[in-house]
Amino acid sequence: MVNSTLSYFLLSTYIHVGNLRYLCFMITTIVYIVIVVANTSLIVVICVNRSLHEPMYLFLCSLFVNELYGSSGLFPFLLVQILSDIHTVSAPLCFLQIFCLFTYVNIQFCNLAVMSYDRYLAICYPLQYNTRMTSHKALIFIILVWLYSFVKVLITLSLNIRLTLCGNIINSLYCSNYLVVKLACSDTQVNNFYGYFATVLTIFVPLFPILFSYMRILRVCFSGSKQTRQKALSTCTPHLVSLLNFSFGCGFEMFQSRFDKSGVPRALRIILSLYFLIIQPLMNPVMYGLQMSKLRNICKHVLCYKLLAGGRKNKSVSE
Q: Which pLDDT band, with edges at 50, 70 and 90, does 304 fall under?
């Protein structure tokens, strides 16, 4: 149960913009619609086309589902807060948002780690790839990633809920685990210890397979043919860009929640605090959709088919 003495939190980072809030609401709504449409479209394309039922595309599907999940944990809440005069959130809803956003981050990093291992097998062991990484194994990896992330964050949340909180002002646009723990006036040693342990797990559990995979991939690239280097470049570039972009966004959010950021302009702090929750779900569908030739060609085929079907339907109506 949530601490009975605290029924809501106050989010103090929102700026009073007057009638501009309606413009902010429209822009945020458009961004959310684009994220939902882009990620859902690629999920449907991968699920419907049997030729894409391969490990690499299954991992991509998991990535896109997670981006929908993380966006849904932020955007509806953000839209309500933009139109509100008083930026409060009930305690149960706040803890639910913490759970959604934390699992989103964990799943994203772990999914990217598994994808790096998949690329390592595809590039370093191309002849053995189909036996080493099957669709069945890929599904097991995906289930383990999601299950591990949910259990890990549930433990964090259960430790937070037991705390006695002596304040309710959160200096953020949304609920943050660390900022809620800072409001506690009871003993937080267990929370702090598990928090550091969980941070290490979040960073280093995915980091080891990523470093291992790319060290091996680079080794093969330097000793292999030009064709091998081109294949490695085309398949690894979107993954590396996605990994570095997400790491930057999460790193800044972790930094600003723990250190004094009074020297950083408030508007910039707001933009950067939302960076990993907005740019990643926008960028990944576009980047992977354009870079992965098989996925790109099927998307083009589906789009052209719909356009032709729509054109024929309009023509028949006009006749």
A: low
